[in-house]
Amino acid sequence: MLASRALVRGLQSGFWRRVSTSSGARAAHPHDVDVLDCSAPQYNNRPDTPWPDVPFVRNLSAEQKKLKEKEKGPWTQLTKEEKLAIYRLTHELSFPEMNKGSKEWMTVLGGIFYFLGFTALLVWWQRVYVYGDVPHTFSQEWVEKQTQMMIDMRVNPVQGFSNKWDYEKKQWK
Amino acid sequence: MISAAVLRAVASLTRARAAHTAPLAVRCFSHAKVETDEEFDSRWVTYFSKPDLDAWELRKGMNTLIGYDLVPEPKILASALRACRRLDDLASAIRILEAVKDKSGPHQEIYPYVIQELGPTLQELGISTPEELGIHTV
């Protein structure tokens, strides 16, 4: 019990900002800022809900508050930069920014090929070092005798094996 | 070799249950009244024209409207833009224009038409289009 708690604290101070989400862990880290309260309305960039529940910037600086005050007057008096700033206060991403894709698929596909290649190396090693010899019935001599016997037996004479053998000329057709 | 009497009895039984074929003309569609386009438009114009519309109602209305499988008529959008003005919300007004363009999808003639129809309203209220602000591209 004590050992695990010490381990958690060590990990928190070391690599991870939070290991557990219990309030005990949060109390141990009062400087931790980005605690997400999932019960409160959140901002999101979704083209199917263009007006999220909360604006993007909630804690306005003094300058931003002044801009908001100016917004209450006629909008014809706002400059383009001010209008853009007001837009960006409420919305993080515009529609084109939301809808643009990324190049992540290339990374994913590359990763897939990489691991497939690695697996191929393992399979090759296995074939060379793990598998034993092939049965003696695969040897050249055996296969020759086997084939001759199949021809003599008339295996698949209609559409298959023996059909391909010319019995007069004693050769493959 | 079934006797004729038995056959007659069976025939009379089936004949007694004769008239139960379903009428062919009635089909199983709902009898609910279908709202016309004009009714839909005027309903939404009225929604946004409410003088004491609050910010939540504006957002809810717009999110719902955008959720429908249609691009809203300019008159609905004009009413919504005026609601934004009443709430001192320029960002939402610009977002409305962006959302219209997004809703039009591949039909690229819709957005210029809407902007053209809303021209007087945009000028009166001082709303810049996304193109004027440079956020129409990435």
From TrEMBL, chain A:
Q: Which InterPro entries match?
A: Cyt_c_oxidase_su4, Cyt_c_oxidase_su4_fam, Cyt_c_oxidase_su4_sf
* UniProt-listed CDD domains: Cyt_c_Oxidase_IV
Q: In which pathway does it act?
A: Energy metabolism; oxidative phosphorylation
Q: How does it sit in the membrane?
A: Single-pass membrane protein
Q: Which UniProt keywords apply?
A: Membrane, Mitochondrion, Mitochondrion inner membrane, Transmembrane, Transmembrane helix
Q: Where's it mainly located?
A: mitochondrion
Q: Which GO terms describe its cellular component?
A: mitochondrial inner membrane; respiratory chain complex IV
Q: Which positions carry the signal peptide feature in this UniProt record?
A: none
Localisation per UniProt entry:
Mitochondrion inner membrane
Any one Gene Ontology BP term: mitochondrial electron transport, cytochrome c to oxygen
Q: Where are the transmembrane segments?
A: 105-125
General function of this protein: Component of the cytochrome c oxidase, the last enzyme in the mitochondrial electron transport chain which drives oxidative phosphorylation.
* Subunit and interaction comment: Component of the cytochrome c oxidase (complex IV, CIV), a multisubunit enzyme composed of 14 subunits. The complex is composed of a catalytic core of 3 subunits MT-CO1, MT-CO2 and MT-CO3, encoded in the mitochondrial DNA, and 11 supernumerary subunits COX4I, COX5A, COX5B, COX6A, COX6B, COX6C, COX7A, COX7B, COX7C, COX8 and NDUFA4, which are encoded in the nuclear genome.
* Family classification: Belongs to the cytochrome c oxidase IV family.
Q: Know the name of this protein? A: Cytochrome c oxidase subunit 4
Q: From what organism does this protein derive?
A: Phoxinus phoxinus (Eurasian minnow)
- Upper lineage ranks? Eukaryota, Metazoa, Chordata, Craniata, Vertebrata
Automatic annotation (TrEMBL), chain B:
For the biological process aspect of GO, one term held by this record is: mitochondrial electron transport, cytochrome c to oxygen
Q: Name one GO cellular component term.
A: respiratory chain complex IV
State whether keyword Ubl conjugation applies: yes
Q: Pathway involvement? A: Energy metabolism; oxidative phosphorylation
| GO-annotated molecular function | metal ion binding
Give the highest taxon in the source lineage: Eukaryota
Q: Which Pfam families match?
A: COX5A
Q: Where can this protein be found?
A: Mitochondrion inner membrane
Membrane topology label: Peripheral membrane protein
Q: What function is annotated for this protein?
A: Component of the cytochrome c oxidase, the last enzyme in the mitochondrial electron transport chain which drives oxidative phosphorylation. The respiratory chain contains 3 multisubunit complexes succinate dehydrogenase (complex II, CII), ubiquinol-cytochrome c oxidoreductase (cytochrome b-c1 complex, complex III, CIII) and cytochrome c oxidase (complex IV, CIV), that cooperate to transfer electrons derived from NADH and succinate to molecular oxygen, creating an electrochemical gradient over the inner membrane that drives transmembrane transport and the ATP synthase.
Q: How does it assemble?
A: Component of the cytochrome c oxidase (complex IV, CIV), a multisubunit enzyme composed of a catalytic core of 3 subunits and several supernumerary subunits. The complex exists as a monomer or a dimer and forms supercomplexes (SCs) in the inner mitochondrial membrane with ubiquinol-cytochrome c oxidoreductase (cytochrome b-c1 complex, complex III, CIII).
Its family? Belongs to the cytochrome c oxidase subunit 5A family.
Protein name (database record): Cytochrome c oxidase subunit 5A, mitochondrial
